[in-house]
């Protein structure tokens, strides 16, 4: 389980963050920084972050699980930035801060007299991070953006789903999550550069940009041959067998990336001749002749128990896995072994940080809170 009271400070100990963002991308960025020791103060509008109501399920305090998954290791307070008093409190907090995270609509901070230029002049060492839908300018500049809509607009939906079905949303808010990671990465770059220059800078992470960045290998394929990428279900567009294949019991996902792995697979299945067949002997041939190969493999796989076969093959060096449900994945022994679960007093449970540092590991100091007392020292 994740640490509740670590004996060593995190890598970002001493960094103060004001997180005035809402929903997902910005709060996830703030949580990443908080997990690694930053002192994060989350500022919410008077009515609270919208995701407090994005349920069910809800905690005993009436807070949605969605919010609880994105806002640990933060103290909280509520401010009305539309009021003079609220803006003055924000300015006093920023005077002590290293990082400011926000995702206000373009023009909102400017309307309050808190635009990027104003903040940069008043707080020259401040790293100001904005998470936005499309950036401030351009054909879509300033427009609101949500994960699923950006998935649709950036082509992600068009390549997700079965080959004979329609475009399908990826089952997780992948654009929001990657935008949060890009924001955290940008903040770290800016903090590192500040050590050299003594100056902060503006960091922008847009959902649209992050969505486009996720198009590999489909974008690379299109750049190369000009063909519009198509949906291939579970199958990889460039590699085979890189697909969900039916066994005698449950399906197994095979991720065979080279000739050696394919040879091991065929020998284990008792069909070594498949690896020598010119139709399947090379990665290129297997990809071109994938439908015939799938038929041949599934005919042989019908004699095997899926989960047991996956366990045997992966230990022989063939990447593959049984297809688990979310509860099965969270309860897997390796999930616990890797420290990917967090449990804190009061019943909080969550997914831990995947970033492993040997001397300054992530820590989990408190669960998401409902109210805070201002920007206090760590």
TrEMBL record:
Task: State what protein this is by name.
Answer: Carnitine dehydratase
Name the Pfam families for this protein: CoA_transf_3
What InterPro entries does UniProt report for this protein, alphabetically? Answer: CoA-transferase_III_domain, CoA-Trfase_fam_III, CoA-Trfase_III_dom3_sf, CoA-Trfase_III_dom_1_sf
Q: What organism is this sequence from?
A: Ramlibacter tataouinensis
Asked if the Swiss-Prot or TrEMBL record annotates the protein with the keyword Transferase, the reply is yes
Q: Give yes or no: UniProt keyword Transferase.
A: yes
Report which residue ranges the record marks as coiled coil. Answer: none
The record's SUPFAM superfamilies line, in alphabetical order, gives:
CoA-transferase family III (CaiB/BaiF)
Query: What GO MF terms are annotated?
Result: CoA-transferase activity
Which positions make up the signal peptide?
Answer: none
Query: Which keywords does the record carry?
Result: Transferase
């Amino acid at each position: 389980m994740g640490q509740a009271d670590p004996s060593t400070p995190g890598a970002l100990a001493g960094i103060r963050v004001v997180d005035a963002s809402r929903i997902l991308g910005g709060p996830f960025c703030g949580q990443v920084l908080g997990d690694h020791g930053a002192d994060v103060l989350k500022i919410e509008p008077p009515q609270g972050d919208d995701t407090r109501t994005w349920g069910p399920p809800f905690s005993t305090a009436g807070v949605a699980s969605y919010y609880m998954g994105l806002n640990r290791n933060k103290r909280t307070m509520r401010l009305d930035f539309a009021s003079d008093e609220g803006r003055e409190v924000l300015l006093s907090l920023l005077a002590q801060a290293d990082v400011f995270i926000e995702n206000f609509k373009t023009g909102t901070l400017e309307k309050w007299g808190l635009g990027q230029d104003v903040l940069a002049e008043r707080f020259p060492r401040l790293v100001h991070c904005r998470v936005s839908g499309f950036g401030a300018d351009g054909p879509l500049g300033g427009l609101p953006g949500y994960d699923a809509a950006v998935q649709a607009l950036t082509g992600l939906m068009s390549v997700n789903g079965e080959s004979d079905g329609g475009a399908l949303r990826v089952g997780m808010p992948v654009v929001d999550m990657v935008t949060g990671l890009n924001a955290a990465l940008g903040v770290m770059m800016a903090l590192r550069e500040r050590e050299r220059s003594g100056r902060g800078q503006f960091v922008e992470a847009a959902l649209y940009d992050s969505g486009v960045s996720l198009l590999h290998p489909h974008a690379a394929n299109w750049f190369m041959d000009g063909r519009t990428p198509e949906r291939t279900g579970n199958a990889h567009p460039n590699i085979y067998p890189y697909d969900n294949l039916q066994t005698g019991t449950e399906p197994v996902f095979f991720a065979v990336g080279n000739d050696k792995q394919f040879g091991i697979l065929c020998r284990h299945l008792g069909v070594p001749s498949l690896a020598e067949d010119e139709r399947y002997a090379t990665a290129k041939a297997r990809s071109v002749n994938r439908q015939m190969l799938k038929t041949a493999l599934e005919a042989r796989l019908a004699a095997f128990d899926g989960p047991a076969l996956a366990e045997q093959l992966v230990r022989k060096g063939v990447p593959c896995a049984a297809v688990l449900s979310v509860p099965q994945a969270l309860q897997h022994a390796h999930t616990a072994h890797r420290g990917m679960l967090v449990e804190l007093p009061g019943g909080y449970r969550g997914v831990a940080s995947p970033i492993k540092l040997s001397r300054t590991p992530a820590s989990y100091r408190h669960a998401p809170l409902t109210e805070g007392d201002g920007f206090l020292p760590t």
